[in-house]
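Problem: given the chain below (167 residues), write out its structure.
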Amino acid sequence: TDNLSDTTDVSQLRNVRYMGSGDTETAIENGNIVALNGLTSERDVYKAITPTATNVLDDIYLVASVETMADERKKNLNEFRNKVGGKAARAYKLHPGDQFSATAEAFDGTPKVGDFALIQASTKLKPSTTHTAGANAIGKFIAIETVGNDTYYVVLVQQIATPAVGG
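Solution.
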């Protein structure tokens, strides 16, 4: 959550349970994206679903829960999952100007600086050198940073117009 507006304005922060594309709660990793589909039976907990390729930036939330490990034997953050039946996950509404970073597991492919971050029918953003008609981008990859043994890919959220068909 490098520079997400919801870290200071929590009015658009949501508690979510990821339901995939159905009604069965499913584990999800931080750094993945979801769309919302109404409230669950719990007060103030939304049903998070897998985005479709037609979703746009305004529909997308970034899953980024506080990474506390219930199992004290697990020390590495790459072992953290938002578990089924556990606490609701935290999801941040993405706005133009926001920045976030995630490891490679959050993406469908290896991002390069300058690539577009495309929404697809998946919880993983797809890095792409091109942005074609019908592809919905949430922004661009602006940096690659190494912290210890982990590599983070930094996304700058931007409102990117869909190119005209045939243009």
